[in-house]
Amino acid sequence: MPRSTDLITPTDRGLWCAAGNFHIDPWRPVERAVVTHAHADHACPGCEHYLASPATCDLLRVRIGPDIDATPLPFGKAITQGDTRVSLHPAGHILGSAQVRVEDTRPGAHNDGTWCVSGDYKVDPPQQQDPTAERFEPVRCDAFISETTFALPIYRWPDRARVAREINAWWRANAEAGRTSVLLAYSLGKAQRVLRLLDPAIGPIGVHASIPKLSAVYERHGVVLPEAVTANAESAPDLKNGGVIVAPPSASSGPWVRRFAGPEGLRIAMVSGWMRVRGRRRWQSLDHGFVLSDHADWQGLLDSIEATGAARVGLTHGSASIMARYLAEHASLDAFVVPTRYTGEGDGENKADGDEDEAPTGAAGEAGGDAVNDQAASEAGADA
Ligand SMILES: [Zn+2]
């Protein structure tokens, strides 16, 4: 349970550390924001000051504005903020994503003196590490606040190499049949993960106009991505010739995508952890779905929580109450739900350039709809 003496507490603006006088990932403008990563549901515009990893600061300048007051804090380096020591540690979610470790330095600080807020995180097996995000590092702490976007046992991610083979085989088959391939992936993080998997030998690669300025930050920070053209009227003739286009999900519903159709049309596939639930693809009328997430799966969450050694665990985003119950019953942890503004389905615009934190629109009703026979969807429905 939350306690009045907690170092970090939920407020109507997000997580707040009174001893350090800062918020973590506030959703309304505040004076001092420590930001875990640059997705829209974690990085609020209008704050007076931002503290974040160097890559996140660069991404914030692209997404929020070039003139924000942002101080870069390299991973593992601790600074004093009021009566606390603050350090950032890789979260493996997107480039620059960080967990925030906060240590209470007041004399006589109580037992729960070290906290860690995960933000969004992804744990890859050593041989499967995605090169577009820094490797997740477990942080020892007394209290851990973990995200729970995919906190259901049905969420188990296939290995990265297999997903790459599936995507490239699908693209190749489409190209040979005279069809353009469209892969739907959020512009920041997922798009770069997908680009890195593509085999440029198959055909030309195009990206939606929202992606190049974000990919440029990745490249400045040493991430190698394949050559890609901006998908527009100029590049359309080339892309129609067996090309693949990576675009945010919002781009699939309008006329924009039709201009790239090859002689035999086009095929659209979503790339998301949500595609683990087969019924979701049917519900969204997608041609195909590939299971690739930038969040930890069920086992990844359990392993990460255990690795912190924390006796108290706050859960937030997604299936928080399910995970809280599981941890209390199976691991005898003091587990509790941390309220967030971002629950349920979110709005389409936020998803378009934000994150896959929010389930695709309509997902909550899915289990009772056309996916009623889908075992996985039925389990997912328990959270709806
Ligand atoms: Zn995120």
Plain-language structure description:
This protein has 384 residues and is α/β, with parallel strands linked by helices. The chain has two domains: 9-155 and 294-343, Metallo-beta-lactamase, Chain A, CATH 3.60.15.10; 160-290, Rossmann fold, CATH 3.40.50.10890. Helix content is 23%, strand content 21%. The chain has ten helices and 19 strands. It has a seven-stranded mixed β-sheet with strand order 7-8-9-10-11-18-19, covered by helices on one side. Strand 18, helix 8 and strand 19 form a beta-alpha-beta unit. Helix 1 packs antiparallel against helix 4 (212-220). The protein is globular, with a radius of gyration of 21 Å. Zinc ion (ZN) is lined by residues 37, 39, 42, 93, 120, 355, 357.
Structural class: alpha/beta
Q: Quick one: CATH class of the largest domain?
A: Alpha Beta
How is the main sheet built?
A: 7 strands, mixed
The largest beta-sheet arranges its strands as: 7-8-9-10-11-18-19
Number of helices: 10
Features:
binds zinc ion; 384 residues; 6-stranded mixed sheet; 23% helix; 10 helices; disordered C terminus; single chain; Metallo-beta-lactamase, Chain A; 2 domains; alpha/beta; Rossmann fold; 19 strands; 7-stranded mixed sheet
Topology diagram in text:
Layout: E1 9-11, E2 14-17, E3 22-24, E4 32-34, E5 49-52, H1 54-63, E6 70-72, E7 79-81, E8 84-90, E9 98-104, E10 114-117, E11 143-148, H2 160-176, E12 180-184, H3 190-197, E13 205-207, H4 212-220, E14 229-230, H5 236-239, E15 244-247, E16 266-271, H6 278-283, E17 288-290, H7 298-308, E18 312-318, H8 320-330, E19 334-337, H9 348-353, H10 375-381
Parallel strand pairs: 3-4, 4-5, 5-6, 10-11, 11-18, 12-15, 12-16, 13-14, 13-15, 16-17, 18-19
Antiparallel strand pairs: 1-2, 2-3, 7-8, 8-9, 9-10
Bound molecules: zinc ion (ZN).
The site of zinc ion has 7 residues, from loops.
